[in-house]
Specification:
By secondary structure, this protein is an all-alpha fold. About 70% of the residues lie in helices and about 0% in strands. The protein is built from 16 helices and no strands. The two termini are about 85 Å apart.
């Protein structure tokens, strides 16, 4: 992190300005000061850019160089504000470097790491073990050029005279510091390995197979990470047994996949059949709804006609009654008028009875139509009474009533 910032500063600042500065000292360095900047010919840039710059006129060269200086200043100021240069923990993590292990300043650094990452650990015990580690001759004999994780793993594998673990407190502190990822190199490396495993010819590999291949590759790589000689892996009986069992497991997995595929197809077929049935039911329901609507419309028209016939019969009955009353009230009763009035009464009664019967039949048809509409509605929206009743009985613990 600091090295990246220092590399950028050394491109256009004088080396004496950056020399000896680290962390927070780099963040307060003002790169806008012209006195500490390099001259135009000393500013580091690519050969292609320098060749293009030479071909320009003097006025344009001045403008371009001012733009280059402004670019460097903006980039450095941005890094000074964004990089955690004042973070003491990141600075103290440098004590885990095998090359800095013998420095006296690492004692305060390991204490700070213990306080920040392992607050439950006794700091004094951690410092005591660190001092012993600095004076341990066995630690000095461990190869410092190997991977840092393997270096510390070799230290923590050391035994005391009593054949017990020599360092008890330090492992958890050091591991807490090493797990802090400072780059994405490992994840990028894993993606590259996956790209080599899943090639164009092996694009049909399943997740289980890819994970198995990666597990084998990682096991071979970590078996001998220093010398990288996988041919020295010891072939044991247990390993042979696992290899033989892998074929059986593979066949069993294929059988399980076939069964799962069959179940999936059956489920898809059932779902498709159910959707077709629901579609047919919906169409039938729409047709029934239209038919019932037409029947209801016909009944309304028929009821209007029956009501009109009943009204005409009532009017005829009223006229016949008035005419008969008038014939009876005359001094000399007109037999002809009485006879006509009687005929009108008989006709009006007959028509009225027919109209009443007609209305009764219409009402019965209306009741049957209402029943059909209710059944259609119940079919479209199933009732939840039975479900609610069952859930209520199960919650209350009451026994179900037996119906005869």
């Amino acid at each position: 992190m600091c090295q990246t910032l220092m590399k950028l500063m050394c491109r256009f600042l004088k080396p004496d300005t950056v020399k000896g500065k680290f962390g927070g000292e780099l963040s307060i360095l003002s790169c806008d000061d012209v006195q500490i900047q390099l001259s135009d010919k000393d500013i580091v840039m690519g050969d292609d850019a320098r060749g293009v710059l030479v071909k320009l006129g003097s006025d344009k060269q001045i403008i371009v160089m001012l733009g280059i200086r402004a670019f460097f200043c903006a980039a450095i100021i941005h890094l000074q504000h964004k990089l955690p240069l004042h973070n003491r923990l990141l600075k103290d993590l440098g004590c885990l470097n095998p090359q800095k292990l013998e420095y006296k300043s690492t004692q305060s650094a390991i204490q700070n790491i213990a306080r920040k990452l392992q607050p439950n650990v006794d700091v004094s015990c951690a410092l005591d073990e660190w001092k012993i580690l600095q004076m341990d001759n066995n630690v000095a004999m461990i190869n410092k050029e190997q991977i840092i994780e393997h270096y510390w793993n070799a230290i923590f594998a050391l035994k005391s005279v009593a054949n017990t673990v020599k360092y008890v407190v330090l492992p958890c502190i050091v591991k807490s510091g090493l797990v802090l990822a400072q780059m994405n190199a490992e994840s990028e490396r894993s993606l590259s390995i996956n790209a080599r495993v899943v090639t164009k010819e092996r694009s049909a590999l399943g997740d289980t197979t890819i994970c198995g291949l990666r597990a084998v590759k990682d096991a071979v790589r970590f078996y001998d990470p220093v010398n990288n000689q996988p041919e020295k892996i010891v072939v044991t009986k247990e390993m042979k047994r696992y290899v033989r069992a892998s074929s059986v497991a593979y066949q069993a997995r294929l059988e399980d996949e076939k069964i799962a595929e069959k179940e999936r197809r059956e489920q898809a077929k059932q779902q498709s059949d159910e959707e077709d049935r629901l579609r047919r039911d919906k169409l039938q329901m729409v047709d029934k709804k239209k038919s019932l609507a037409n029947d209801e419309k016909d009944l309304i028209e028929e009821k209007k006609e029956a009501t009109s016939a009943l009204k005409e019969a009532d009017e005829l009955l009223s006229d016949a009654t008035q005419k008969l009353q008038g014939a009876i009230n005359e001094p000399s009763m007109n037999q002809q008028s009485v006879k006509v009035a009687s005929i009108m009464l008989d006709v009006s009664k007959t028509k009225r009875e027919e109209a009443m019967q007609w209305l009764q039949k219409i009402n019965e048809k209306q009741k049957m139509l209402d029943i059909k509409q209710r059944k259609l509605l119940d079919k479209a929206i199933p009732s939840n009474k039975n479900t609610k009743r069952k859930s209520a009985d199960s919650e209350s613990g009451l026994p179900k009533k037996k119906t005869k």
